[in-house]
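On clarity, I found the account of how folds are encoded harder to follow than it need be. What matters is that the chain and its backbone geometry are given together, residue for residue. The format is easy to grasp once an entry is in front of the reader. For illustration, here is how one protein appears when written out as sequence plus structure tokens.
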Amino acid sequence: MTRYWAAMDIVPPSDDQVPRLAAFRDAHPDIEIDSPADSGGMWCAREGGKILAVKFGLRALLDRLDELLASR
């Protein structure tokens, strides 16, 4: 029997970082965020070719970017 697992069954709405990523990209078009599929298994953020942050999880990456941008 094949079972369908909806995304909401796997990731609770409060933990879904995709809307947060979309909002970040809209607010900071100068910062490029590469997914693990594009950057060797880790989330990576770059600005002007310079690596800003590299993290295993999207939440951790976005949290770190928030910290970095708050200090600017």
